[in-house]
Amino acid sequence: MTNYIVVKGTSGIGNRVFAVATGILYAQLSGRQLVVDWRDGSYSNSGTNLFFRYFDCPVAQSVEVLPATDSIYPTHWQNKLNRSLGSVINESGLSCYKDLSFDVSRLDYTETIIVLSAYTHKIGFMRPLFTGSASRFASMNNLEILQLVLQSNLSLKEDIRLQVEEFKREYFADYMIGVHIRYSDMKVPLSEVESSLASIIRSVKSKHPNYKIFVATDSQEVLSSFKQKFPVIISTNKWFSASGKRLHQNPEECEDLIQNGIEALVDLDLLAACDELLFASRSSFGLLSSMLMDKPQAIRHDIDTQKPLIKRVQLKLKNLAKKLKIGG
């Protein structure tokens, strides 16, 4: 009899991919069949499972394989597996993801179906499982494990990959500096991005005078500003919110949610194809793009880790307060 782990999609592309990576590793360690469910409507209004429109993942199957059963953990998901995480949270009054997710540090669940609900990876919580045949993971840090899992099991659909390759052939230079700027709902300090980028350019231009800068951002205003200040910037042609809201989970403004996801994935892969990348790891999208860089000499510049320790702690507390809705 087959047992299953279902990974529910939530939030943006980066969040979702990190959750899937957790599911892939847990499925390998537990012997369960991985099922990915991205029918929540963030990238489609039709109820389509968009994970399989965007990715090839040989170890994952879609929800159609799930049996009809009440043997589900957490029990909040009984008779609700076809629902989105957000709708179940709203209906149940639960305030935490953990109430709708199993504990990834355990392998002893007897239920046929266990559900993972997470907005980021849970690799750190899985460390008690890294024994015996899985002991090779014990000496690796979380990001190394994620990188290994994703690069071994996940790839873009061919049509999306071809869009990436076409853009690279037409616009990329011999040396590329990638910049990711999340600004709509998670404002990265632009002055820090500008000063860091200027520093990178000073170190690059003597060796690579024909360099270019690829910028991926969720703000058309930020993109226009950077193009005025750094004339060698290139970017993809994509949809922006006229009101300045975030690009994902914005069905009120975005007319083609599926294309919105494809545009995000193209940007993600182009960032990962650069020789150097400037990003802020507070953004799952920026962090994911840095992990997917596969050039041996790739250089990563994380604005958040460049801050003094006290500022990093203050930033984490500020972001935590936002999630918990503490303060004004």
Automatic annotation (TrEMBL):
Gene Ontology biological-process entries: oligosaccharide biosynthetic process; protein N-linked glycosylation
Top-rank taxon, per record: Bacteria
Coiled coil regions, renumbered to chain: none
Listed InterPro entries: NodZ (IPR008716)
GO MF annotation terms: alpha-(1->6)-fucosyltransferase activity
Pfam families: NodZ (PF05830)
Protein name: Xyloglucan fucosyltransferase/Nodulation protein Z (NodZ)
